[in-house]
Amino acid sequence: MNTTTTARPKSRVRRWLRPWWAKALLLLVLAGIGFGVYRLLVPPPPPPPPPSGDAALADITQVVQAAGVLQPRVKVDVGAQVSGQVQKIHVQLGQQVKKGEVLVSLDPELARSDVAQAEAAVAQQAALIESLQASLKLARREAERQQRLLRGEATAATESERADTELAKLEADLRGQSATLKRLQAELTTRQLRLSYTTITAPMSGTVVNLPVQEGQTVIAVQITPVMVTLADMDEITVKSRVPEADIGSVRTRQKARFVTLAGEAQRHESRVRVIQPVPERMGNAVFYNVLFEVPNREGRLLSDMTVQVSIETGQAKQVLAIPMVALGARDDDGRYSVQVLGSDGKSAPRTIRTGLQDGARVQVLQGLKAGEKVLLAPAADAASDAASGAASGAASGAASGAAAGAASGAASAASS
């Protein structure tokens, strides 16, 4: 009888374990029990301490980064002041020229013809004035003679008056013709000047950077002066850097400015800020201010319109109290920042500090911390978020484990019944 009773539960167990899902469920229950026993015997290691940084003395150099472009300090567009056909171009692109050197020659024939006409008009007027001067001398003698005869009562008074009137008319005519001569001489000077304009010379020493005309081309200088040659002094280069509106408040003249070229061997150059243009440039919704400074370019390695990366040193402090930038929290209306200070017990407490210069990695602390104190590097919001996500995942994991265990228990009890 005992043998029958013992065999009947064994047969039930074999019958219950015959389906594959029953075996898998049994293995899952056994694995959960084993993991629970392991956690009881071997507890998990404590969580690592939060990342922190020390408030320590350091050197801070604050810089403003900006993109820039190279331009010649002096750049002149040499234009034609008279119309005409380009007869000869005496220079080439990239050529070095001296002041007064001939750049372009226009056809001078029309201008020479105008000068010849003006010279002829001046000569004709001068001959007319000489004739008037001779007539004036004769009229003056006649007037004097009539005055002598009138004093001796040898002529009528009307004859004397007629001689004086003739003299006055000739004198007035001479003055008018003299003014006409001056006008013609001025016109001659203008036409001679226009003739000289057919030979275009360099107003400065420099390099030919633009040559927009060709020989045989006709240029019309009526309302707009046509550009014939562009000269630039490449011995000194102006760096035009665009500083964002948020950073321009810390930029001053005479501050150190450096730039690195993007081309070639990444050459480094240093100078000082010369001027800050007060009128900004707008690019969409962004506002930029142009900061200018110059560097020498005797070797000619720097070219016009090169793109450079500019760094302007806006402040420097030696051996001042500083903390990592990532330790800064929210900023209040007074410009102060909140930080989490770690105590000796490992607990953090909020504190408000006043900051100064920063170099992108560390920030100067003016008030609120002492040397040697530790601050949390992760913002408090991130820590809370991590804690919340950890708690949620733990709760979900616990709920899932409980549900699995309950399902296994229900299945086993159903099978046993």
Summarize the entry for a quick read.
With 417 residues, the protein is of the alpha+beta class.
Give the topology, please.
Elements: H1 2-17, H2 20-41, E1 52-54, E2 56-79, E3 84-89, E4 96-97, E5 102-106, H3 109-151, H4 157-197, E6 199-201, E7 206-210, E8 218-219, E9 227-244, E10 256-261, E11 268-272, E12 275-276, E13 281-283, E14 286-296, E15 307-324, E16 337-342, E17 348-358, E18 362-367, E19 374-376, H5 380-416
Antiparallel strand pairs: 1-19, 2-9, 2-15, 3-5, 3-8, 4-7, 5-6, 7-9, 9-14, 10-11, 10-15, 12-14, 13-14, 15-18, 16-17, 16-19, 17-18
Helix pairs in contact: 2-5, 3-4
Task: Describe the fold and architecture.
The protein is α+β, with helices and mostly antiparallel strands and 417 residues long. Helices cover 38% and strands 33% of the residues. The protein has five helices and 19 strands. The protein has helices at 2-17, 20-41, 109-151, 157-197, 380-416, and strands spanning 52-54, 56-79, 84-89, 96-97, 102-106, 199-201, 206-210, 218-219, 227-244, 256-261, 268-272, 275-276, 281-283, 286-296, 307-324, 337-342, 348-358, 362-367, 374-376. The strands form two sheets. It has a 15-stranded antiparallel β-sheet that branches. The protein has a four-stranded antiparallel β-sheet with strand order 6-5-3-8. Strand 16 (337-342) and strand 17 (348-358) form a beta hairpin. Helix 2 crosses helix 5. The longest helix is centred in the N-terminal third of the chain and has 43 residues, at 109-151. The protein is elongated, with a radius of gyration of 50 Å. The two termini are 22 Å apart.
